What does this fold into?
Amino acid sequence: MKYLGWYILSGNAFHISLHYLRVCFYQCFNSLFARGSNFSEPVLQHLVNTCCKLYLLYGCQVIIWTKSELSNISYAFNSVLCRIYRVKHDLLSCICEYTGQSNILDEISNRHIRFVTQSLCSPNLPVRFWQYISVVSVLYISVNSVCATDIISE
It folds into this structure.
């Protein structure tokens, strides 16, 4: 079922399909790459960051990501950069360092952190309460996992 641009999957928990977001990202990139094949690599990279990356980052603040979803999103973005610069994935880190391109996973985590902090400062009491409960539960889980590792190591 499609709702607000996301394809919601059926199941016991809330899941969305990122397949259509990746498809839109690749469609946007292919149209840019076909029309701007005579542009330089930095220009194409800037166009991808401003026009295409938004499809991958749509709603990333509120999604609870799995490792495979993050891997798929990262691969999609990195494969486009490899296509622009005509390199293999192992040389992409040098190009990203040289051009100042940030990792898409870092951008996703920064957007999520910004969303949580803005929600905690919201004047809406139910939103603040829900965020407070979620932050406390995450802290409780992390403290218990640290205590469990301390007990195991002793």
Summary: The two ends are 50 Å apart (CA to CA). Residues 2-121 form one domain. The beta strands are 2-3, 6-9, 15-17. The mean pLDDT is 79.
